[in-house]
Amino acid sequence: MRNFLIGCIVLFTMVGTACNETKEPHRKLAVDLGMELVLIPAGEFKMGIGESAEEAATFFNKTYGRLLVQADWFKDEHPQHRVRITKPFYLGAYPVTRGQFRQFVADAGYKTDAEKGDDPGAYGWDPDKKEFVFNEKYSWRNAGFEQTDEHPVINVSWNDAVEYCKWLSKKEGKTYRLPTEAEWEYACRAGTTTRYYSGDDPETLAKVGNVADAAAEAQFPDRTRTIRASDGYVFTAPVGQFKPNAFGLYDMHGNAFEWCADWYGKDYYGKSPADDPKGPDAGDGRVLRGGSWVAWPGSTRSAGRNWFGPADRSDFTGFRVARTQ
User: Fold this and answer.
1) Where are the chain's structural domains?
2) Cβ atoms within 10 Å of 305's Cβ, excluding its own
3) CA-to-CA distance for 65 and 69, rounded, in angstroms?
4) Where do the H-state alpha helices sit in 82-231?
5) Could you point out which of 109, 177, 234, 283 has its C-alpha 20 to 30 Å from the C-alpha of 24?
6) DSSP letters of 19-60?
């Protein structure tokens, strides 16, 4: 994953075109597992960042002087380009929860990447060392801090998320999958053209998502990449605790980074097709979007791009499902 996201682990991506349909009431669909899906209409938007990488870095360095933001962190969000999502699709109103993932594990007898292989384990909070460490005792079942079945599942890899979608497809008789990166940003923006669907000011994140904030800094004073406001949570929050966007989607900013279907391509935006882009044909990592409870305000933007290897997992990686209509 890019250096600035790794920095978030240690310390704790603009302009769009609104689709007229975003102002219409959103349609919801219930799934047997208690999962709510929202119908996302077809439409178009400008994908990527509208300001230069240098302008973005200057903004965050001026607003949060302690961040030491680098312009290179934003260059893969250029050029901003028009994208058309040509077909409606369903997207989970919330990230997949621990309870929903638990049903999958029990029914399928599935073991996650953290629970098998040559490198078992994941990241979690070690109260004795007072730091986040990689250890085989950590997985989606345990991240070293309290979670209920209403919290987003974390410590899941891209591989785990894909297997969940395959299982759910078979169970429901519908095609479930991870959203493409373009679908994800389109759905997150929901017609907005600002840094976040709550506006341009990072401080507005406290109303719409669980990010690195004053509550986290109070408990971990060495964490400097935080907003000044408090969202009330140090670690993950139960899903749906903050204001949704205009499509009726919750937790698109913060709580857990969300896996997308695409391979990550640093220069992909320069050659991306206008209609329904699906990312490069190959790559080293899969795209993560949206930020997390530990993420600094730059990485939680609607345009923010990050990536991990398909088998990588952490205490801030989760996912939500998409469904072909």
Assistant:
1) 3-30+37-324
2) 27
3) 9
4) 98-108, 158-172, 181-189, 205-208, 214-219
5) 177
6) -GGGGSPPPEEE-TTS-EEEEEPPEEEEES-SS-HHHHHHHH
The answer to whether 46 and 82 have CB atoms below 8 angstroms apart is: yes
CATH class belonging to 3-30+37-324: alpha beta
Placement of tokens 């300001």 in the chain:
51
Q: Is 32 or 141 the better-scoring residue by pLDDT?
A: 141
Give dist(CA 291, CA 211) in Å, integer.
7
The pair of structure tokens assigned to 112 is 């996650």
Instruction: Choose among 8, 2, 242: nearest CA to 123.
Output: 8
With a CB cutoff of 8 Å and minimum separation 6, the contacts of 232 are: 215
Residue 21 phi, psi (nearest 5)? -70, -15
Is the entire prediction scored with pTM above 0.90? yes
How far apart (Å, rounded) are the C-alpha atoms in residues 233 and 146?
Answer: 12
Residue 41: band (very low, low, confident or very high) from pLDDT cuts 50, 70, 90: very high
Nearest C-alpha neighbor of 239 from the set 223, 255, 228, 215: 255
